[in-house]
UniProtKB/TrEMBL annotation:
InterPro entries: GntR_C, TF_FadR/GntR_C, Tscrpt_reg_HTH_GntR, WH-like_DNA-bd_sf, WH_DNA-bd_sf. Pfam families: FCD, GntR. This is Putative HTH-type transcriptional regulator YdfH. Residues 1-66 form the HTH gntR-type domain. GO terms for molecular function: DNA binding; DNA-binding transcription factor activity. It comes from the Bacteria. Keywords: DNA-binding, Transcription, Transcription regulation.
């Protein structure tokens, strides 16, 4: 049950259902999920460590703001980590994993003019899970995921009509480049594909927020 509670609360934060600065009502949530407050509190403590929640003494748990500076810093670190993730994955990837990526890419192509940002994020996580499995480094992948969670929230603050189609196309291009690098077992190309994607998101944020 603790895993399900964690999944629900984290999912609501990342999707924007719980907004930045909003306090999470432990009692109401426990009643909704039909659990005691213990797994709720354990989840909130874990999410505080993940920088998604701020626990304020005698006040409760507040959804941490998706601050632009924190997002930019997270992208800077992702640039390093995910370049290495791509390189490692390219040298270890299996044919089955390449086929999984091709299937995910086809799903993404169906979202360019349809679907929501949540749909796109779900496919992005599927894609990243395959990368993590191929790279065979649990610690590297988990660190990358923590930073991904910091960065992904900011896109929910942007109207979908302004971002969705372009973000879907960018993900398709990234996965396509990764597939080609993986087929060639080219670690350099995979590293470049991952880092080019991070640079794209960083530049798009700069343009959107005019910084």
């Amino acid at each position: 049950m603790a895993k399900e509670v964690y999944s629900v609360i984290k999912g609501r934060i990342l999707s924007g259902a719980y907004e930045s600065g909003e306090f999470i009502n432990e009692i109401a949530l426990a009643e909704e999920l039909n659990v005691s407050r213990t797994p709720i509190r354990e989840t909130l403590a874990r999410l505080e460590w993940e920088k998604l929640v701020t626990i304020i003494p005698r006040a409760g748990a507040m959804v941490a703001p998706a601050e632009l500076n924190a997002v930019k810093e997270a992208y800077q670190v992702r640039l390093i980590l995910e370049g290495d993730l791509g390189r490692r994955a390219a040298l270890r990837v299996t044919q089955t994993q390449i086929e999984q990526l091709e299937a995910i890419k086809r799903k993404c192509e169906g979202l360019v003019n349809a679907g929501t940002q949540d749909d796109l994020n779900a496919l992005s996580r599927e894609y990243r899970a395959v990368l993590g499995a191929a790279a065979s480094n649990k610690t590297l992948f988990e660190m990358s995921e923590l930073l991904f969670n910091v960065t992904v929230r900011v896109w929910h603050t942007i109207p979908e009509k302004d971002a969705h189609a372009e973000l879907a196309s960018a993900l398709i291009a990234e996965i396509g480049a990764i597939i080609e690098a993986f087929k060639a077992k080219d670690g350099d190309a995979a590293q470049k594909a991952m880092q080019d994607a991070i640079r794209y998101y960083t530049e798009k944020l700069r343009r959107l927020f005019r910084e």
